[in-house]
Specification:
Elements: E1 7-10, E2 13-16, E3 26-29, H1 32-36, H2 40-50, E4 59-66, E5 73-79, E6 86-88, E7 99-108, H3 109-112, H4 116-126, H5 141-150, H6 152-157, H7 163-166, H8 185-191, E8 204-213, H9 216-222, E9 228-235, H10 238-258, E10 270-272, H11 276-310, E11 317-323, E12 325-334, E13 337-346, E14 349-350, E15 369-372, E16 380-385, H12 387-393, E17 396-397, H13 407-413, H14 416-425, E18 429-432, H15 435-440, H16 449-459, E19 462-475
Parallel strand pairs: 3-4, 18-19
Antiparallel strand pairs: 1-2, 2-3, 4-5, 5-13, 6-10, 7-9, 7-11, 8-9, 8-19, 12-13, 14-17, 15-16, 16-19
The protein binds one DNA strand of 6 nucleotides through helix 10.
DNA sequence: ATGTAC
């Protein structure tokens, strides 16, 4: 019923005009192939988002979009607080500030060739991964609020990494506006042993080789060259973020009912930005962002320690750290006027263009590095934000390959052991916490990441800089 | 995503 309403709007850009209770159109970024295979539920969920109070311009779906809890994963929606706009826990997702960090190792492929197995064993031993994985680091209840206020800055102050890392993290490694008092004791308790752990699902730590460079200028600006060895870390806010989402989804269902906000789907629970629960969720969610930033900072430190054990010449520097499950207050131009909006990005990466004031000086000319994690057996990409993207999608783009198949479908089709063997034949070492987890994450369960990234570039949301191919994957 | 169904 939605697919037949699609109108091609531009290169890799489609629109569904508002109908029913939609206040704004749906805009989907995808090529012909991706749009043909797009799950009808993505349109339904994007339409539900388009019907929420205070939504501005459009309800967006990225090329990697798929069904999610309330909002589609790969969905972007911006809300105006002065027009009754809402904030939604489902619009951020359960894994608050799930994101990707990319490190340059200072090594080239020649320097690690032949040592892959040793490096893989070392990383797997040092990086806690899997369901309920525990860290050697303990954050006591006394320190918890400092961590939730300080983010990666807190981690650096505890001895995990360097101050220089912070300028290559969104928000300089510390999200302002965090309000630990609005995070439940239960959520904090769940995090005590989990700072510096990978978690499970699609989370991983990967050692990668730069296999292609698409723009010499941008690669130079990002310090990348062919055959450089990089590390990509994908994880989020673990138990704490999950508990914040659980706590506030329940509160928001109640508030939405009291405020007379009609919800097409109860999973889309939300509260007016200016309501008490709306403000509390925002403060708690910012604390969740800091938790994820601290988590990735500690994991980077563990990675540095592992590399230092084998390679005295390794020098791991942070290229960038992006979150792809957030709601952020940003200034965007609407009808010629600057407006402060609450931009939800769920399974969508911020992709700010050149000259944006929030970028560090040495990235002003290039635009923001955009990190796209692919699947174990395929490739990941580094892109750069564009000026065009700022008006096309509030400076947002895809976040990964995007699931094409549910986890249960994937476990019926593949066995973890076979996936590991198949990837070994391609020269990729997988260190997995669970065979079932590996089956769920089989490359075949995902869309084609190359198609997703190409559609993103054709639409103008970001520019391709480099392709990374996996050598070692420590899987949650 | 998640102490993978408090």
């Amino acid at each position: 019923m939605f697919a037949e309403k699609l109108k091609k709007r531009g290169e890799a850009q489609w629109e569904i005009a508002p109908f029913g209770k939609m206040r704004v159109p749906i805009i989907i970024f995808a090529d012909e192939g991706l749009i043909r295979d797009m799950d009808e539920q993505v349109y339904q969920q994007a339409a539900n988002v388009a019907a929420l109070p205070g939504i501005v311009k459009a309800s967006y779906a990225m090329p990697d979009a798929h069904w999610g809890y309330g909002f589609p994963i790969g969905g972007v929606g911006a809300f105006d607080p002065d027009a009754g706009g809402v904030i939604s826990a489902g619009g951020v997702g359960f894994d608050i500030s799930c994101g990707v960090r990319s490190l340059h190792t200072g090594l080239t492929y020649d320097q690690i060739k032949g040592n892959e197995k040793e490096l893989a064993d070392l990383l797997a031993r040092r990086i806690p991964a899997g369901v309920g994985s525990e860290s050697k680091l303990r954050v006591t209840s006394l320190e918890m609020d400092d961590m939730l206020q300080g983010g990666a800055l807190w981690a650096v102050e505890q001895g995990y990494g360097h101050r220089a890392d912070l300028r290559r993290i969104e928000e300089n490694g510390r999200m302002l506006g965090a309000e630990p008092r609005y995070v439940s004791d239960h959520a904090k308790q769940r995090q005590e042993k989990e700072v510096g752990t990978l978690g499970s699902g699609n989370h991983y730590l990967e050692v990668q080789r730069v296999a292609a460079v698409y723009s010499d200028d941008l690669a130079k600006a990002f310090g990348l060259a062919l055959n450089d060895i990089m590390v990509m870390i994908h994880c989020g806010s673990r138990g704490l973020g999950h508990q914040i989402a659980t706590d506030y989804l329940a509160k928001m269902i109640k508030v939405a009912r009291e405020e007379g906000i009609e919800l097409a789907d109860k999973d889309l629970a939300c509260a007016p930005i200016k309501s008490e629960v709306g403000k509390q969720y925002y403060g708690a969610m910012c604390a969740g962002i800091n938790c994820a930033l601290a988590n990735r900072q500690v994991l980077m430190h563990l990675t540095r320690e592992a590399f230092a054990q084998i390679y005295s010449r390794a020098n791991l520097t942070l290229l960038y750290d992006v979150s792809h499950n957030t709601c952020k207050v940003e200034e965007h131009e609407i009808d010629g006027h600057k407006k402060k909006l609450y931009v939800h990005r769920k399974g969508a990466t911020r992709a700010f263009g050149p000259g944006h004031p929030s970028l560090p000086e040495d990235l002003q000319a290039s635009g923001q590095p955009v990190l796209i994690g692919g699947t174990m057996g395929t490739a990941s990409f580094i892109l750069a934000g564009t000026t065009e993207g700022m008006t096309l999608s509030f400076g947002s783009c895809c976040h990964g390959a995007g699931r094409a198949m549910s986890r249960s479908q994937a476990t019926k089709r593949w066995h973890g052991k076979d996936v590991v063997m198949h990837l070994a034949q391609k020269g990729i070492i997988i260190k997995g916490a669970s065979p079932r987890g590996i089956a769920e994450e089989a490359p075949g369960a995902y869309k084609d990441v190359t198609a997703v990234v190409n559609a993103t570039e054709i639409a103008g949301l970001a520019r391709k800089v480099a392709r990374l191919e996996p050598l070692i994957c420590v899987k949650g």
